[in-house]
Amino acid sequence: MSAAYFRLQQLISPSLPIGAFTYSQGMEWAVESGWIKDAESLYAWLDSVLSGTMVTMELPLLMRIADCIEYKDAQGCHDWSAYLLSCRETSELRAEEQQRGQAFSALLDKLPEAAVWPELSDPVWRGAMDISQLSGFALACHKWNISREDMLRGYLWSWLENMVIGAVKLIPLGQSDGQRVLFRFTDYLSTACEEAFDVEDDDIGASSPAQAIASSLHETQYCRLFRS
Amino acid sequence: MRLEKRGERTVMAGLTHRGPLRVQRPFYPEGETSHIYLLHPPGGVVGGDGLSIDIECCQNAHGLFTTPGATKFYLSAGATADVTQMLHIGAGCALEWFPQESIFFTGAKVKAKTQIDLEDDAHFMGWEISCFGRPVNKERFLHGKVHSKFFVRRNGRPLLSDHLLVSDPKHLSAAAGLRDYPMQGLFVATGGTEELLEACRDVLAEAQTKLTNSLPAGLTLLDDLIVLRVLGISTEKMQSLMIPVWQLLRQKVLNKGAEIPRIWNT
């Protein structure tokens, strides 16, 4: 088994110190308001974000950014990252995107093998990594020979796992209820990656208005555990 | 269409048009600001139709656009209707964009794009109200494909790239999507600050108390854009949340009175 497999596991682990567990992407307000109240409504929420944002925006952009890295197109990488940020619907979701991006590149700076990558010290590449978590993630996947498919699946799984961990805390749910929600998604996850392959440049964008409203209202939520 | 300020007034300095889309002569209910109605006499848009609007504001022009009625998109036999609205707002200019709602009938196939290009200190305020099916008649949007984009850039840099995509009835009931509300409203205004955002939140909260049932509605600040999103079942109720926010920002940012286009009252 190649090193690529283990490197991917490291990149998508909830223990990666980029603070993934501090973001709920509006779920904290959705729980407070009663939109999410049990395993069923959690499943419905995540299924909706998966098809309304992940498949139509993040995964297609991750592929575009990976292409730019492969063809050494720094400006392209920057432009897609800036586009991603402009698709994020609220100030908290934008702050999250940037904080995750910066935490990810700061982590790469500290890994002996990664620290010497020229992209980390180039202003255009670094600029892209500092506004979006996708750029740093795609760069690491490229350098460590992680395949496109595995990169997409890994990114998607990592997002889903972190959301479920957050929701188990928020609702609250039992650990095994959380596992059952994850389990229910297994079949759809591969389909989601295939659907993302078919999204054309012009159609890339997020359409999750209730999540955008939940995230907007989270900004003034009185009692909060999460940063988004 | 080209708007320019000449003397005390914003005038239509250039206009070319083709097909049934019409522009009414500007009128001036509040001094220099030019109020303009966009008219589409056929009343509806069918598959294969293309509507294209290109407006340029320059030399300190201030224009307010609206439509006298909703734009209806009918069932398509196959082809997609294409709507492109390009609004270029030059330095020192302001454009307000308050069309009435777009109604998408079952079976409509529509690609719509509103692109707002701001230069330097240019200002924009406007909304887009989308209605799926005809809730008044209890008609649901059962199939069709609508992809509506609302993009704002300043000096070429993207500030907001908003999408609304409904290509499957499940998108209408999606938990993080429209949650079974047939309508979405998106209001966007430049000139926002944290302080103004606070003031808008107060105005929104007060407007919510006047509704029997409050609607899902959230305000956020993106760069200098104040963005309000609302879900609802009737234009009037959604507007009752969006108009007070617009009125506040109109006064604070554009230094204009809280004028509501008279045609909305008829």
From TrEMBL, chain A:
It is found in: Cytoplasm. One of its GO terms (cellular component) is cytoplasm. GO terms for molecular function: nickel cation binding. Its main location: cytoplasm. Pfam families: UreF (PF01730). Keywords: Chaperone, Cytoplasm, Nickel insertion. PANTHER family: UREASE ACCESSORY PROTEIN F. Belongs to the UreF family. Required for maturation of urease via the functional incorporation of the urease nickel metallocenter. UreD, UreF and UreG form a complex that acts as a GTP-hydrolysis-dependent molecular chaperone, activating the urease apoprotein by helping to assemble the nickel containing metallocenter of UreC. The UreE protein probably delivers the nickel. This is Urease accessory protein UreF. It comes from Thalassolituus maritimus. The lineage of its organism: Bacteria, Pseudomonadati, Pseudomonadota, Gammaproteobacteria, Oceanospirillales. The gene is ureF.
From TrEMBL, chain B:
Transmembrane segments: none annotated. Required for maturation of urease via the functional incorporation of the urease nickel metallocenter. Belongs to the UreD family. It comes from Thalassolituus maritimus. The keyword Amino-acid biosynthesis does not apply. This is Urease accessory protein UreD. GO terms for cellular component: cytoplasm. It is found in: Cytoplasm. The keyword Cytoplasm applies. UreD, UreF and UreG form a complex that acts as a GTP-hydrolysis-dependent molecular chaperone, activating the urease apoprotein by helping to assemble the nickel containing metallocenter of UreC. The UreE protein probably delivers the nickel. The gene is ureD. Keywords: Chaperone, Cytoplasm, Nickel insertion. GO terms for molecular function: nickel cation binding. It comes from the Bacteria.
